[in-house]
């Protein structure tokens, strides 16, 4: 995955390691513009110092698409004449007479945890690029202050005075589709000027046909979409004929979509960057290898801590990620005393405590020293709590700086870490699904997040169990068989 294996930020002076990477790495090989004010977002200028040089280079086409998008955002984003005119039109007209607006928008509306939010924002940004819409986000107090502004001289925040903080007054996608079915000759005047699209899993889970050309043809002329989503729906976008051509040109390597979009959009704010870099320099920088271990327990009622610890140990020891303990000796006679650091991310303190105690109480057979560090243990997922989300963001980012990553199946928290790190994680199986002699973990095929609730129907309404047979770069997710994920050519060999 990486070109070179060098110790990163071994000194506390960031500038001293600049020689390892260069200006090209700094700006993600041209994906990022250099004109931002450094003090307002230090991570944008320093994050390359904490990552190894990546093979994944953005294509020239992606760079040109992003530059065009930035131009659109500058022209149509908040506080511009075009924004004021377009929004006034959208607000005041019930239907869409077609030529009253100069700009089109997509407003991303959050739901569920931070991992879900980040992966769905990345997907919505790609959709915005593909449809020439301006992306605006509805950040509540819980996630404001986590990220820097991504677009130069503009903002992606939906202005506080916008009527589109609520959607109760606008048409929903379901009723829109329903109307569409009952009317054969649709004209532009039939289209609303704003539409609320609910793109997340629900118990009823009706097919929404978002992945179909005919739906996108209808949505194209609606000036404002509000998308409430927690999903990484990029695989759906790749099923749409015109988008597929563009995605292929933008991302010749199909497993780097989140990697590039994530590095473009999600720069830790100065507050988050301070937490990340202090932790990194204090506990991780000196290790020869950094191992990220994310333990997400989805069913604490039916899973014991011991079951999870057993899974973790069996996965890490069997795959030689961590050394076995030397239970015969109290001292190591090996000359190898290299330090490996394990970063544990979990809501529960016991996992970090147990692992740390294990490697402090006994030597390892290899002689390696294993430092175990867990930044937080929040005990439960909390909502509307800014510091809680800040910790979650810090940990996802720190995990993404690992050399080897172990994550929990089905967790979008882990997906963000693997996606930003460009890492193929070892996926721990869900304990209740483990069969007696089956492996405790399996390495993933790609660093792309899994789209959990992928479509179940073809566009003609016929059921389709899995789309992998029709779309070569889409495979069933290893950690959730209803899901689909994008993989590179090499994963298909
Ligand atoms: P998912 O539910 O695993 O798909 O991940 P999400 O990030 O969408 O939602 C889980 C939320 O629970 C996180 O955003 C955090 O708020 C919290 N959480 C879960 N695991 C951890 C953890 O290891 N560390 C921290 N700090 N928070 C966690």
From TrEMBL:
Record's keyword terms, sorted: Cell wall biogenesis/degradation, Glycoprotein, Glycosyltransferase, Golgi apparatus, Transferase
Main localization of the protein described in the UniProt heading: Golgi
Membrane topology: Single-pass type II membrane protein
Record-level Gene Ontology MF annotations: galactoside 2-alpha-L-fucosyltransferase activity
Protein localization: Golgi apparatus, Golgi stack membrane
Pfam families, per database record: XG_FTase
Any one GO CC term of the record: Golgi cisterna membrane
Annotated EC: 2.4.1.-
GO BP, one annotated term: cell wall biogenesis
Family stated for the protein in its record: Belongs to the glycosyltransferase 37 family.
Protein's job: May be involved in cell wall biosynthesis.
Protein name: Fucosyltransferase
